[in-house]
Amino acid sequence: MIIVDTVEIFLADNYVRCELSDGKKYRILLKDYENLPFECKPESRLENITIDTDKIGLSETNGYFDGDCAGFLAFLSKKYTIYKSAISKVALTDVPKKQLFQKLYFAFRKNSPGTDPGLLKTLCLLVCGEFEAQGYLDDRRYAADKAKYLKEYKKYGSGKIKQHLYQKGIPSDIINEILEDESFSDEESELSNMTGLLEKKYGANLDRLDKSDKNEIQKAVNMLVRNGYRYPSARNAVAAFTDKDIDYMIDYMEDED
After folding, report:
1. Residues 169-182: tens digit of each pLDDT
2. Is the dihedral of CA 149, 151, 156, 157 positive or negative?
3. Does residue 78 sit in the same domain as residue 167?
4. For the chain, which end, N or C, has fewer CB atoms within 10 Å of the first or last residue's CB respectively?
5. First CA to last CA across the chain, in angstroms?
């Protein structure tokens, strides 16, 4: 028979430590302890206690309680470990939800290789969900800040910004919402960014670009396209530094494509 011999609460660290009579010790989050669907105190016998069914619906975590009290404490203890790791990963930088999930999942799997993958996925999703509810994670905030940085400092066009955010796990609806903002469709700032990229590579007035060489002109246009700009916009940006004959050459190249 398993009996809880000691229960120590450390409010400063936001956890409760439970030590069972078989010598096993578990640390669980204070909020999970307060929501336990059974009494966990000294001398309470875990196999023969009354389950408080009303508390099962108090949290998503409690939905995984199957009547095995000691087993649930072990479940909550693993969750505490993942939660603690998550705190350190979001303390200094903003991360998207999917990226945090992956960091937690692979770090725990590496440190505890015997953990069931399905159980580990459940625990990481629970922690990420709670972080999102508490405001530690906000994909919309992350996407808006990152998009602004990529546009203003990297000079990326909307296409490459979209690709970057998608690779970070940001949902498509959030990406589209962010990029629909007028600041990302402003033609004047778009041209200014493309001009900055061209001058960084070819110098002021594109002095290092052979404007009479069709292939060199095509490479300049392609460079802008790779940075996320539409072909017509990239063509016009390069054409702004060339004479009329080169404008015609660029139009001709586009027709060939």
Report:
1. 999 999 999 999 87
2. positive
3. no
4. C
5. 77
pLDDT mean over 88-108: 92
In contact, 46 and 2? CB cutoff 8 Å: yes
Q: Tokens representing 103?
A: 């960091």
Q: What tens digit of pLDDT does each residue of 180-228 get?
A: 987 787 888 999 999 999 999 999 888 899 888 888 999 999 999 999 9
Number of helices (H), then strands (E), belonging to the chain: the values are 12, 3
Q: Which residue has the tokens 């350190």?
A: 88
In a domain, 191, yes or no: no
How many domains are contained in the chain? 3
> Do 82 and 19 reside in the same domain of the chain?
yes
The pLDDT of residue 162: 95
DSSP assignments along 172-199, one per residue: HHHHHHHHTSGGGS-HHHHHHHHHHHHH
Domain residue limits at 176: 139-184
| Per-position DSSP letters for 118-148, written without gaps between them | HHHHHHHHHHHHHHHHTTS--HHHHHHHHHH
The torsion region of residue 78 among left (phi > 0), alpha (psi -120 to 50) and beta comes to alpha
59/172 same-domain check: no
Whole-angstrom distance, CA of residue 215 vs CA of residue 193:
23
Task: Grade residue 1 by pLDDT with cuts at 50, 70 and 90.
Answer: low
Tokens of residue 70, six digits:
């000691």
Give the span between the Cα atoms of 91 and 94, in whole angstroms.
8
